[in-house]
Amino acid sequence: MGNRGMEELIPLVNRLQDALSSVGQSCSLHLPQIAVVGGQSAGKSSVLENFVGRDFLPRGSGIVTRRPLILQLLSATMEYGEFLHCKGKKFTDFDEIRKEIETETCRLTGSNKGISPVPINLRIHSPHVLNLTLVDLPGITKVPVGDQPADIEYQIRDMIMQYICKENCLILAVTPANTDLANSDALKLAKDVDPQGQRTIGVITKLDLMDEGTDAREILENRLLPLRRGYIGVVNRSQKDIDGKKDIKAALLAEEKFFLSHPAYKHMAERMGTPYLQRALNQQLTNHIRDTLPAFRSHLQSQLLSLNKEAEQYRQYSPDDPARRTKTLLQLVQHLAVDFEKLIEGSGDKVDTVNLSGGARINRIFHEYFPYELVKIESDERKMRREINYAIRNIHGVRTGLFTPDMAFEAIVKKEISRLKGPCIKFIDMVSQELINTVYQCINKLSSFPKLRDETERIVTAEIREQESKCRDQVLLLIDIQLAYINTKHEDFIGFTNYLSSLSLAVVQVIRKGWLTISNIGIMKGGAKEYWFILTAESLSWFRDDEEKEKKYMLPLDNLKLRDVEKGFMSSKFVFAVFNTESRNVYKDYKCLELACNSQEELDSWKSSLLRAGVYPEKVDGQGNGSPENFTDPQLERQVETIRNLVDSYMSIIYKTVRDLMPKTIMHLIINSVKEFISSELLAQLYALGECSALMDESPEQQRHREEVLRKHAALKEALAVIGEISTSTCTTPLPPPVDSSWIQPSSPTLPKNSLTGARPMIRGHAPPVPRVPTPTRPTAFQSADGLQQLTGQPSRGPFVPR
């Protein structure tokens, strides 16, 4: 019953399906569904059974199909059926398939005509079919019966729309010959989703039940009420034939005899009947496969290209070959060393554009976090002066000192130097942890070999911890060296001249630029607004935008302090404030300026920059600190001021030295040592374990992945070879030219479209007017008396009653 092209395509498409299904790949040809749409008792199920060639659907009066039946036809050597809800059970008796459909339908809908949109999935394997999906849908009804809901019409229409709105769904609009075609619900629904008529085929059933003297010749010739793809007439088995167990083959012979012997149809008998309908659908399948293959071939080729390199590596890898295992181990360790160095040095092939990683994060610790920690410990001015005061008075004892004691200077300096140990140790810990995270990032590529990954992680982590310990000892030694001798002859120490000149040189230096929002300006004065800020060693200025042409204000940094501001409940901004320690206004009539940025990282960076510019955080005394010491002795005040300046001068040398030496020490003792260890010592330590063969045992996941890649690669090559065998000379039928189908009124042109299907719902009782068409040569049995008068413009000769 199929055409020559389809007969050639069937085995090739089946081979293609077999090649790809072996690796769980879908053929992706998206063969069309065939949805049979029509009213109750229109003969939909009979048409569907004729495609299968078997009698397996429930029969009866009224609404029989009460759930969608998705029928998948699969080409196979044996003939049997399977239900999705009865996995593993094969039905070889098609009468049992019918009973199972009835049982499953009643399970959800009951036995009193209820309906359900939940489909029944049935697979039929047969050597006589092509892989195809057919859908039997409930018949369109308007009057609820039994347990059916009041909106049964809308539910059925929505159910139908879910299927026929798909572009790969062919619509068989089934209409009995003894009804009014102009008001066919099936054609109206098809018109909604297929206005051009490219996938709608009219099917006229029950031609043998028309009144004597009437026929459907002009309809089937597509001259009256035309469709783009025209109409095909079929004659199904009557209920008497079905009850008498008349098989489908005998019914097809009777159908052929009917068309050949009927005077109105014999001239077009070759274009009528179920076999012709099957050929028409088969031709559509042929066209679809031909249209789909080029894109499908390109898709398979792109998949094959993406797998070529990996498949070639797996093909050369032999899990049981000791030499191959050793070579793979060597290559993996070499790649690990290269990847680690690229992440640290910032020369990776793949650049992360979302987050900082590796060397960039370590650089940030070097130049943002560590300087910020150092500046924080030198910012408590009141505490420093109190300690100097106590030191001077304790050194003098009961005597009144005439000169400033150098021992007080040395005691304060050593105490300040000792306070550096905490930030330095924290600095080492942060860098070590970041280094371990970088190693984990590289080692994750060894996940195919779990034992190798675990041992490599253990060995490298132990090396990092060992170097971290050495670095910690070295840093503590450097601090102890600074404590051992206070070099007051340093070229940068005292004279206030050198200290002040260093500040003056920084006046013109721009420390930071960026966008900040002034968040504490009232709504009446313009509200919060974003400006472009520039921070130097002397001032904080802001401009209208980053072109820096229109300066809004310049705030001197003298007597400014920094404090945190709690984040608002509904705010996503991170806020800090600057204020004047002498309670002066910092901007217009504002005592403080609240500045907001978009992230915690940006906030920390701005704080660090302000500390570099000399704007220190506000320190709030805890309980029991008491008020600042009142200096009543002018001589003591001068001594405190002198030592304070000396300490400040000397500690600036220490801070500068530590900021310079710490990154160098860590780089030398930890980062470079670990890089050298991975590139030259790691492989030797792995060999020293004496379990090289066990290290290269694949994980079960990797083994499955390797086998899957090789199978998929072979399947893709086979599939492309199969596609190459499909003849492009398969006969095709061009789409018929458009026709005037305006006689089919949309189901409801003035209503909004259905949210699920995109089609407009029907209103019960709404019957749009039918336009006039040319007067037919003789009336047909498709029109009632009123319908005939509407179509022809002439009064009818009498009532028409179909038999």
TrEMBL record:
The record's Gene3D superfamilies line, in alphabetical order, gives: Dynamin, middle domain, P-loop containing nucleotide triphosphate hydrolases, Pleckstrin-homology domain (PH domain)/Phosphotyrosine-binding domain (PTB)
Disordered: region residues = 734-803
The record's annotation in SUPFAM superfamilies points to: P-loop containing nucleoside triphosphate hydrolases, PH domain-like
**Which InterPro entries has this protein been placed in?**
Dynamin, Dynamin_GTPase, Dynamin_GTPase_CS, Dynamin_N, Dynamin_stalk, G_DYNAMIN_dom, GED, GED_dom
Which PANTHER family does the annotation name? DYNAMIN, DYNAMIN-3
Q: Name one Pfam family in it.
A: GED
Question: Where is composition skewed (Pro residues) in this entry?
Answer: 768-777
Q: What is this protein called?
A: Interferon-induced GTP-binding protein Mx
Family of the protein in this entry: Belongs to the TRAFAC class dynamin-like GTPase superfamily. Dynamin/Fzo/YdjA family.
Report domain PH positions: 509-615
Q: Which UniProt keywords apply?
A: Cytoplasm, Endocytosis, GTP-binding, Hydrolase, Microtubule, Motor protein, Nucleotide-binding
Q: Which GO terms describe its biological process?
A: receptor internalization; synaptic vesicle budding from presynaptic endocytic zone membrane
Q: Which residues form the GED domain?
A: 640-731
Q: Which gene encodes it?
A: dnm3a
> Which species expresses this protein natively?
Lates calcarifer
Q: Would the keyword Zinc be found if you checked this record's keyword annotation? A: no
Specify whether Nucleotide-binding is a keyword of the entry: yes
**What spans are recorded as compositionally biased (Polar residues)?**
742-757, 781-795
- Name its cellular compartments: Cytoplasm
Record-level Gene Ontology MF annotations = GTP binding; GTPase activity; microtubule binding
- Tell me its EC number(s), please: 3.6.5.5
A cellular component annotation (GO) from this entry:
presynapse
Q: Which residues form the Dynamin-type G domain?
A: 28-294
